[in-house]
Design brief:
SAUR_fam; alpha+beta; Small auxin up regulated protein; 86 residues; 29% helix
Length: 86
């Protein structure tokens, strides 16, 4: 059985490197890491729950300049790997 890798692209550079059909989010509890993920995740209920948590914690003011997701990097990677199997 093959292991399927999640469809996320981990990046750490500027906003100009986001491919069409993707968007950047910042994830982490203390030190934020930047991930570029497909916009198709926006329609998934699990990801919508994360966005609701982000709205509750940060409102619409995201200090990193992109959407900040309030969870650990490990939880985010686990969630996005589940989403890429859907």
């Amino acid at each position: 059985m093959a292991i399927r890798m999640p469809r996320i692209i981990k990046k750490s550079s500027t906003a100009g490197d986001v491919p069409k059909g993707h968007f950047a989010v910042y994830v982490g509890e203390n030190q934020k890491k930047r991930f570029v993920i497909p916009i198709s995740f926006l329609s998934q209920p699990l990801f919508q729950d994360l966005l609701s948590q982000a709205e509750e914690e940060f409102g619409f003011n995201h200090p990193m300049g992109g959407v900040t997701i309030p969870c650990s990097e490990d939880v985010f990677i686990d969630l996005t790997s589940r989403l890429s199997r859907i």
